[in-house]
Structure formats: structure tokens, C-alpha cells
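Exercise 7b. C-alpha cells:
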């Protein structure tokens, strides 16, 4: 998979507490637009993940449109197995 910069898990806090990738950052999708400046300063590339890849896809599309280097990492369990 190459160098991992930052993993942002966009699931709810409750989902995140139930299990997540070590060292990932939890910013629920419904709050993500409040964290634009914070995300811009994160070490790239940024990989967004969630349960299945749908919510992380929305986050990746949004931040890509802002010119931020990021990818949809898909479901967190799948992404974790690739690390």
C-alpha cells in the first residue's frame, strides 16, 4: 500500500470505540466540514475509512475537490488488513 500518512475514520464515535485502526483519527462524517483546516495540516496522504467505504468515499470526494491529497480507504477492517 505504500507510505501511510494519516488515517481518518469517519464513522460515529460509538462505532469507532467498538474497534478501529491503531493511530487513526476519528472525525465523524457529519462533523467533517468543521475540521477542514485541521485536515489540511495532516500528514499526507490522507486515507478516509468507515464501515463499508460509502461515508469515506463522500469524505474523499469532498476533500479531493478542495485540492487535498486523499483517498477512500474503504472499510476500516479491509484497510487495516492491508497495513
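Sequence design result:
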Amino acid at each position: 500500500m505504500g507510505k501511510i500518512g494519516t488515517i481518518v475514520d469517519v464513522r460515529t464515535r460509538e462505532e469507532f470505540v467498538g474497534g478501529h485502526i491503531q493511530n487513526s483519527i476519528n472525525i465523524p462524517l457529519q462533523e467533517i466540514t468543521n475540521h477542514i483546516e485541521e485536515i489540511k495540516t495532516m500528514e499526507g496522504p490522507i486515507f478516509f475509512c468507515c464501515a463499508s467505504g460509502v461515508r469515506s468515499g463522500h469524505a474523499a470526494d469532498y476533500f479531493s475537490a478542495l485540492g487535498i491529497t486523499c483517498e477512500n480507504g474503504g472499510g476500516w477492517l479491509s484497510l487495516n488488513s492491508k497495513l
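Instructor comment: The radius of gyration is 11 Å. The beta strands are 6-9, 25-26, 46-50, 70-75.
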